[in-house]
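Memo subject: From amino acid sequence to discrete backbone structure tokens
Action wanted: Derive the backbone structure tokens from the amino acid sequence.
How to read it: Take the token row as a discrete description of the fold.
Attached in line: The record itself begins immediately under this heading.
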Amino acid sequence: MEQACPVVTPSSDELSRLSRLYERNPTSTLFARLADVHLALGDVEGAIRVCRKGLRYRPSYVTGHLVLGRAYLTFGDARRAEDEYQKVLRLEPDNPAATRYLASIAEADGDGERARHLWDRLRVLHPLHPALQRSAPTPEPEETPEAAGEDLARSTPERQEKDEEAFPFVSMTLAKLYARQGHRGRAEQVARLVDPAYPEDRLGELVNESTS
């Protein structure tokens, strides 16, 4: 059994490695991973700069818009973040991450009706999404407990909430870092926080990708 340890954030070496790879091919989708590392290291402006540059070449790259949206939220610019998530839904209408963030933004704006609509949409798209357990607003009285996701919250493993607290900033980059360091258990935890439906057979590929 693995012992508990502090969350490992990407290192400056990882940032340098990705920067070198990206410089060799500035039109590639690698910019999203590079921006994600900038964000994990606290360089929000760097993440925004990298994403905006990359999206000039790859305007239809959904992951790039998602990372840029998170960077704008971290920067405190909810309006620009909202624009990015709307772009994601135009490109990929069933994207659960963009739906979740837009629901949170609507909730923060006090737009309860829109927030409820988006949370309900997220339940359809991704019923096991961890955000539904703590962030979804109270349903209307006529809704059943099943429709509100109450039974879902009870059936979800208790460790899901503990994992969210242990890994407040998650990304597939962080999952790959754990896998590269041989921490398969933590890699799996982070991967499932990014995507609760992450298939078991993809974990082996995650390790292979990280060691290649």
Remarks:
- The first helix runs from residue 12 to 24.
- Residues 70 and 76 are 10 Å apart (CA to CA).
- The chain has two domains: 12-156, 157-212.
